[in-house]
Amino acid sequence: MCLERAKQRSPIKIHHNSILTKKLYKTRKMIVFIKRYHYLRCSYAFDKG
Known about the structure:
It contains two helices and no strands.
């Protein structure tokens, strides 16, 4: 809904926005991956100890 409104306003903005969203998505993915890895490593160490 919000994207449709932005599209009507300017196509340049939506293009820039999509790049920004992709970057944000990648960063979020990375953060989730790191958190999961850290959790797994901690639980693994806990199981061993």
